[in-house]
Amino acid sequence: MALPISYSLRSLWTRRLTAFLTASGMALVVFVFAAVLMLAEGLRMTLVQTGSNDNVVILRKGATSEVDSSIEREKASVVETLPGIAAGREGRPLLAKETVVLITLPKVGGGSSNVTVRGIGEDSLALRPQVKVVQGRMPRPGMPEMIVGQSLMRRFEGLSLGGTLSDNLEGWRIVGVMDAGNTAFSSEIWADADQVMQEFNRPVYSIVIFRLADARSFGSVKQLVENDPRLTLQAKNEVRFYLEQSEMMAKFLTILGVTLTVIFSLGAVIGAMITMYSAVANRTSEIGTLRALGFQRRAILLSFLAESLILGFAGGCLGLFFASFMQLITISTVNFQTFSELAFRFALTPGIFLKSMAFALVMSLAGGVLPAFRASRMNIVESLRTS
Amino acid sequence: MILPKMILKNAFRRKVRTLLTILATAVAILAFGLLRTVITTWYGAAETTAADRLVTRNSVSLIFPLPLSYYEKIRHVEGVREVTYGSWFGGFYISEKNFFANFAMEPESYLNLYREFLIPEDQKQDFLRDRRGALVGVGLMERFGWDLGDTVTLKGTIYPGDWPLVIRAVYRGRTPNVDETQFVFHWEYLNETLKDTAPARANEVGFYILGIRDPSRAAEVAREVDAMFENSPAETLTETEKAFVMGFISMSEAIITVIQAVSLVIIVIILAVVANTMAMTTRERTGEYAVLKTLGFSGFQITVLIMGEALVITCLGALLGILLTYPAAYGFKEALKQFFPLFNVDPMTVVLDLGVAVLVGAAAAVIPARQAVSIRIAEGLRRMG
User: Fold this and answer.
1) What are the boundaries of each domain within chain A?
2) Least confident of B71-75, B131-135, B303-307, B371-375
3) What residues in A contact B60, CB-CB < 8 Å?
């Protein structure tokens, strides 16, 4: 016969301080575990959502980021004539030629950072359905006007609708605020491409972006672009392009996260072990009594494992409870690869939730196994004698 | 003195529990030490900068170049001793994953300014003579298994094409905190090639580095340089090398903040584990403390007894953790070579490790000690059963 769960629960309750300390230790480990996963996931989601699967980005061969890339006007015109591009306004190809530069802006609370300024074409907005104008309007072609990402408005000094930038782009007016959700566009400034080229004395485009009429034709378009000796350009799927840009950052976060988690979980397993060993030691005579009453070794073993799992479950719940608040926090940092400002959020997915809970239970099981075996192997007579 | 002896005896009375607690502390100290090392490494770059060096770049942002013609003008600014210039090349070797810092620099003035690079004299001359020569840090040589005289082809990202270069000199750092994984070649080689392939981009440099005579006049020199190019098509921003490097570091501040927060969480975790052990221990020994009190031990002595035990555990754990930090840091360095060319455990980190151990030991003992001291003798003796 098995021992009831309520026995394990009550045993924990009689030693609440110790149980609480163990569970909170575990909760902290689960918290860190979940937070690191959430950070990596948030970064991944930001970049995946930034791209669309049927968009193609054309860059100069060898360039790894938009800023490195340069495409002369003539080459951009050749790209425009490629077959397979979706039709946009008035039957023209749905395509934008963009110039991307970085400018340094002062951050709220000191320091400064690199902000992406994207010189856009008329179809740029149509190609990015995630981007919504929330205040004001889009900049007009031929005017020194700009629209600023919402996440920049909060984090950078002195940005306001109708205002100008303090140091850079003299005479340029902010005419709108755009919201692009959790995508990289929320950290960008958009302005008319020709104006940007003129202002920064950069007579070339950085990228050409277009939508495919049929996403499956990507392979053939890529071949067409990359095999054309006139072009020396490369074509990339937009989602892949943004993922590649965060590879280094993602790798850094993952290695840091895995190292921390391994080290932390060792600590938490040891913590659970200490608690369970002392639970067994303190209840020696109790265990003897249970055995004398006819409970089998297996029942004792399961009961102690259950007690340990309850601790782990409580720790997991507590840790996830606090981790879920992390979703309110936005991290903004410079992406090492593109060298530009990027904001992303801690994202809690069902997968991370399950992983963290499983992690908590495995930790508590690992900590409880040895003590539970010791309890189940106690000799009845001897354990009854030690009271 | 009977107290130290009692503390040691007590600490190891429950061997398994004590060993486990020591292990848990060691693991936590290890994690704490590694995170501290990540942070000190991050800021470490700023410490190798020299106070007598200024960096002049385009005021819009780093991606915009400055004309080469500024060189002569900057050189004649009062207080400037030596000027070098160059560009961030941003190339990679074979694959994009093999990231390392590579610059095209004016070699002679660069080596005059960067005295922290130790180069054998004959290699230095070879490097200066060969326009396709490269100066490579010893760490990078080991990473790719290169030898002196090897031809290495960098693939350009900012400057397209293949760039074959011959390794003519290898440098070591004068101090251990000098980055030994840089790759430097002649700016002239870059410029001559650009004149053929992309004439619009020729005669432009990414930044100037100024050696100044008197570091205390850095601000004045910087102002003077920037004033000279005000209202020109390429305005400049001049700052000390340290401020320049700190600018990079502060861009990633958010990640550092996260790491610092995690370090604090670790301290709380050790505290929970050690406090748990001490709470269990003193609960078991309530009767003993009553006996000690009967024998005339003061409350203070009993506090010392309990706190001492906690400190013995945390300090042993810290020692073990510190010993483990060194091999762990080495492993971490191997895994993250491309982010951290240097990953040395700072002596200050060891001091902090010990500080944390003492703090945690003392804090963990507070509540159990108070309980043991405040218990009434008769009640304590009764609990012995």
Assistant:
1) 5-48+247-385, 55-213
2) B371-375
3) 101, 103-104, 168, 200
Nearest residue of chain A to residue B268 (CA atoms)? A25
Q: Which residues of A touch B250 (CB under 8 A)?
A: 110-113
Contacts of A259 in chain B (CB under 8 A): 34, 332
Cβ of B157 and A68 within 8 Å?
Answer: yes
Phi, psi dihedrals of residue B222, rounded to the nearest 5°? -60, -45
Burial state string for A92-114 with b = 16 or more CB within 10 A and e = fewer than 16: ebbbbbbbbbbbbbebeeeebbb
Residue of B nearest to A268 (CA): B24
Query: ipTM value of the model?
Result: 0.73
CB contact A29 to B (< 8 Å):
yes
Chain B's closest residue to A114, CA to CA, is B61
Question: Do A104 and B62 count as a contact with CB atoms less than 8 A apart?
Answer: yes
Q: Taking CB atoms and an 8 Å cutoff, what residues of chain B touch A245?
A: none
Judge whether B353 and B270 are in contact, CB under 8 Å: no
Contacts 24+ apart (CB under 8 A), B344-348: B344/B37, B344/B41, B344/B44, B344/B176, B344/B177, B345/B33, B345/B37, B346/B36, B346/B37, B346/B40, B346/B44, B348/B40
Please indicate if any CB of chain B lies within 8 Å of the CB of A111.
Answer: yes
The pair of structure tokens assigned to A192 is: 């008319």
Nearest-CA distance from A85 to chain B in Å? 27
Whether residues A62 and B59 touch (CB distance < 8 A) is answered with no
Burial call A346-358: b when 16+ CB within 10 Å, e when fewer: bbbeeebbeebbe
Domain ranges of chain B: 3-45+252-384, 60-234
Amino acid of residue B151: T
- The segments of chain A whose pLDDT lies below 70 read 1, 167, 387
Chain B residue with CA closest to A25: the answer is B269
Q: Please report, for residues A100, A126, A373, B55, B238, the alpha-carbon distance to residue A65 in angstroms, rounded to integers and kept in the order given.
A: 10, 22, 57, 25, 27
Is pTM beyond 0.95? Reply is no
Supply the DSSP string of B230-253, one letter for each residue: TTSSS-EEEEEHHHHHHHHHHHTH
Q: What is the DSSP string of B145-213?
A: T--TT-EEEEEPSSS-SEEEEEEEEEEEESSTTS----EEEEHHHHHHHHHHH-GGGTTEESEEEEEES
The widest CA-to-CA distance across chain A, in whole angstroms, is 95
- A–B interface: beta-carbon pairs under 8 A: 152
Closest to A13 (Cα-Cα) out of A281, A286, A311:
A311
Q: How confident is the model over B277-307, as pLDDT tens digits?
A: 888 888 888 888 888 888 888 889 999 999 9
User: What distance in Å separates residue B381's CA from the closest CA in chain A?
Assistant: 16
Q: Which residue has the tokens 């392009």?
A: A241
B30 vs B21: CA distance, rounded Å: 14
CA distance A321 to chain B (A): 16
Model confidence pLDDT, tens digit, residues A227-239: 988 888 999 999 9
Location of structure tokens 């569970």: A23
